[in-house]
Amino acid sequence: xxxxxxxxxxxxxxxxxxxxxxxxxxxxxxxxxxxxxxxxxxxxxxxxxxxxxxxxxxxxxxxxxxxxxxxxxxxxxxxxxxxxxxxxxxxxxxxxxxxxxxxxxxxxxxxxxxxxxxxxxxxxxxxxxxxxxxxxxxxxxxxxxxxxxx
Length: 150
Description:
The protein is mainly alpha-helical. 45% of the residues lie in helices and 7% in strands. It contains seven helices and four strands, in the order E-H-E-H-E-H-E-H-H-H-H.
């Protein structure tokens, strides 16, 4: 399932209701957050001349907003549906933010396209350091951690 960050919370809520009511336990539900090629909603941190241009975005401009949507989806699903965090992940710290927001898995795309396979071991090292710093012995323990402290 693909969710676009410029959809409304009511759309997310409807999707979650459909998923929960389907009671299909044999499927894993995946939420992918990205800007579609036709999107005109862009993060404010883009240079002014680019904020109104139509077209898709990937990479760093998506990190904050996609993590907010991921966090919202984790809350709406009460952490019961596996979510994939994506959008702007280029470091272990970025991956860790997605995991703490509720991602069970993290997707690499733009950074992987630019840096290639050498990115993976670096992110693994950085992620392991983040987990150790905060006292987690596994990624599973950190999933949704930002919600559990509230």
